Amino acid sequence: MPGVIFKNDEKYLTFFQTYLLTEKRLTKNTLQAYKKDIEQLINFFNSNKIKVATCNKVNLKKFLRFLKGEGISSKTLSRKISSLKAFFGYLNERFDIPNRAQSLVFPKIEKKLPIYLTQDEVQKLLIAANKDSSNKGIRNKVMLYMMYASGMRVSELVSLTIDQIKFDTGFVSLMGKGNKERLVPLPKNVLQLVRFYLDHIHSKLISKNHILKKQNYLFFSVYNGEAKPISRQSFWIILKKILMQANIFKNISPHTLRHSLATHLLKSGANIRSLQLLLGHEQISTVQIYTHLEKGHVRKVYDKKHPRAT
Question: Is the pTM of this model over 0.70?
Answer without folding.
Answer: no
